[in-house]
Design brief:
- By secondary structure, this protein is mainly alpha-helical.
- It folds into two domains: about 60 residues; about 200 residues, MetI-like fold (Orthogonal Bundle), CATH 1.10.3720.10.
- About 70% of the residues lie in helices and about 0% in strands.
- The chain is built from 14 helices and no strands.
- Helix 5 packs across helix 7.
C-alpha cells in the first residue's frame, strides 16, 4: 500500500519541488520591487512588509529628488530601444532564415551540408571571439550606436538557430504532400507559400519566441556595439548601481518589467510553442 502511494505521489512532489525552485528567484525579485529602501536591505530579510509601488513609479515617471528636482528616468527609453532591436532582429531573421531553411531542407546543391554546418558553427563561437572584429567593421561603416548595426550583429545569435530549427521542421513535412501540390500545377513558390508554411506554423511560433528572448536578453553586443542612443534594458539596469549606493528596489522593478513582454508573448502563443517543439518528433 505504501509503495503504491509513493509511486503515485513521487512525480507530483518532484514537479512541485522543481516549480518552487524555479519560481523562487522571480518571487524574491518581485518582493524586492515592492519594498521600500529600508525593507530591501533589512537584516534578517522581511517577509511581511507594506507593499509600495514607489520603485515602479521611480523608473517610469520619476520621483522628487532630495533637491526637489524631478528625476526623469531613462528606463522607458531603454525599454523602447530593446523592443525595437528585438523586433527588428527577429523580423529579419525570420525573413532570411525561413527561405534558407527551406532551401537546405528541400533543394539539392553542392556544399549544402557544409553551408548548413557553417551556419551552425556561428552558434559554437562565443560572442567575445567575434565582438572585436565586428567593432572594427562597424566603426568603419559608422554602424556603432545604431539600430541597424545592432540588428545586423544580433543575426549572429538568432539567424543560425532559426535556420537549423526551421530546417528540421521543413524536413518533417512528408515530401509526398509537396509533390502532390507540384502535380496540381503549383510552382515551388506556391508550394512553399500555400503548403509548407501553413504546416510549419507551430514551428515558426516556437522559433520566434525563442529568438525574441535571445535578442531581448543579449548583453555583450549591446555593450560594445551600442551606445547612449540605442542602449537596451540589459545595460540600462546597470545604471541603478551607483558609486555611493545600489538602488536594489528600482533594479528589481526594472527586472520585473523586463520579463513582462517575454511572458506575455509566451502565454499568447504557448500552444504553438508546445506543438512547435514537438513537431516532427513522431512520424507516422
Amino acid at each position: 500500500m505504501k509503495l503504491s502511494l509513493l509511486r503515485t505521489l513521487w512525480r507530483p512532489v518532484l514537479l512541485t519541488a522543481y516549480f518552487a525552485f524555479a519560481i523562487a528567484p522571480i518571487l524574491w525579485v518581485l518582493a524586492m520591487s515592492l519594498k521600500n529602501s529600508a525593507d530591501v536591505i533589512a537584516t534578517p530579510p522581511k517577509f511581511i512588509f507594506q507593499p509600495t509601488l514607489e520603485n515602479y513609479k521611480a523608473i517610469t515617471v520619476g520621483l522628487e529628488s532630495y533637491s526637489t528636482e524631478a528625476l526623469r528616468p531613462d528606463f522607458p527609453r531603454y525599454f523602447l530601444n530593446t523592443l525595437i532591436i528585438a523586433t527588428s532582429t527577429v523580423s529579419v531573421s525570420l525573413l532570411l532564415g525561413t527561405f534558407a531553411a527551406y532551401a537546405l531542407a528541400r533543394f539539392s546543391f553542392r556544399f549544402k551540408e557544409d553551408i548548413a554546418f557553417t551556419f551552425l558553427s556561428f552558434r559554437f563561437a562565443p560572442e567575445l571571439m567575434v565582438i572585436l572584429p565586428l567593432f572594427v567593421v562597424f566603426q568603419k561603416l559608422h554602424w556603432i550606436d545604431t539600430f541597424a548595426g545592432l540588428t545586423v550583429a544580433y543575426q549572429l545569435i538568432t539567424l543560425p538557430f532559426l535556420i537549423w530549427v526551421m530546417r528540421g521542421f521543413f524536413e518533417s513535412i512528408p515530401l509526398e504532400i509537396e509533390q502532390a501540390a507540384r502535380v496540381d500545377g503549383y510552382t515551388w513558390w506556391g508550394v512553399f507559400r500555400r503548403v509548407s508554411l501553413p504546416l510549419v506554423r507551430p514551428g515558426i511560433a516556437a522559433v520566434v519566441i525563442l529568438s525574441f528572448i535571445a535578442a531581448w536578453n543579449n548583453f555583450i553586443f549591446a555593450m560594445i556595439l551600442g551606445g547612449q542612443e540605442t542602449q537596451p534594458i540589459t545595460l540600462g539596469i546597470l545604471g541603478f548601481i551607483g558609486y555611493e549606493r545600489i538602488l536594489w528596489g528600482q533594479m528589481a522593478a526594472a527586472t520585473i518589467i523586463c520579463v513582462i513582454p517575454e511572458l506575455i508573448l509566451a502565454f499568447c502563443i504557448q500552444k504553438y510553442i508546445v506543438r512547435g517543439l514537438t513537431f516532427g518528433a513522431v512520424k507516422g
